[in-house]
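Following up on my earlier thread - several people asked me to post the actual chain instead of describing it. Fair enough. Here it is, all 385 residues.
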Amino acid sequence: MPWSNQGGGPWGSGPKGPWGSGPQSSGPTPPDLEDLLRRSQDKLKTVLPGGQFGGRGFALLALVGILLWGFSGFFRVEPDELGVVLRFGKPVREVKPGLNYHLPYPIETALTPKALRVNKIDVGMRVVEGRSGPTIRDLPEESLMLTGDENIVDVDFSVFWVVKPEAKGVENYLFNIQNPEGTVKAVAESAMREVVGRSDIQPILTGARQNIETAVQELMQRILDSYGAGIQITQVQLQKVDPPAQVIDAFRDVQAARADLERAQNEARTYANRVVPEARGRVAQILQSAEAYREQTVAEAQGQTARFLQIYDEYKKAPAVTRQRLYLETMERLFGGTDKIILDTGSGGPGAGQGVVPVLPLNELTRPRTQAPAAQPQARQGANQ
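Reply from S.P.:
Thanks for posting it. Predicted structure:
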């Protein structure tokens, strides 16, 4: 029987303790436990048939308890989750999203990790929600890394990962690692430091981002597979790669100088690509002209040689006729392009003692040879006389 029913307890009346005075109670007095049990028994007797505990009452209570115990095995798996049923702590099967059932506790239990959701972990930065919206807070203790050429670079990146969909993937995720997110973050930071430590700072800041992301993803996957973590890395994404804030201005000046250097080199290559083909074209043109001149000169010499040999053969056959023909052709060649007219006024000629023949077509004779073919025999005859 409690001390409250005995008029104050063994230390007299009032709320006193063994050292004289008890605590001052400022709130309501808690209900008596025995009184609460007595009232519960009275209410239960009114519900049971006959108003008292009997065999049928205990059977009904047992049946209700068994039904409630059996219905406790129903559980729901959300769309982004997978269920793993444990029988006495050992995994026996995996269940898909939806309403499922397992044997009631303690025979079987169910775990529902979010295995179908793509998880994201940021390294070197944190997204902080503020009054003006989300802001990014830099964490130098995670982002500052040493490169292979002993420079410091500030790297912020994100890692996307999921639970492996293959068999035993969810079980490995649940039972082989205790803190999945912490493990992935530690592995990501370690892999990034190793890859950056093997590279120089210049490729990291310019064109090697894709290679670094691929190398970090492959290295992380190998490490997690060796742990049996049941985690698959889907993507590694570099968010920011900069020199430290203290020297970023100097690095930007260096980058600008390198850009100017590349631009000047590209302009020089463009000029060379334009001038060199033109020079080669002119060289080819000169060579072709020289080849053509040589061919022409050789052909003309060969033709003159063949003509001389033919004339010589004809000369041996008829020397007088050949000499006369050569003389006439030479005179025709010499006087064919002149404007002078030569007339034979000597005795015996067609116009002897009479001067110029009145019907002689002088105007016709002054024209080109193609326009006065009839005057050539007369001129040739006067020249011969």
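Confidence is low (pLDDT under 50) at residues 1-27, 371-385. That should answer part of your original question.
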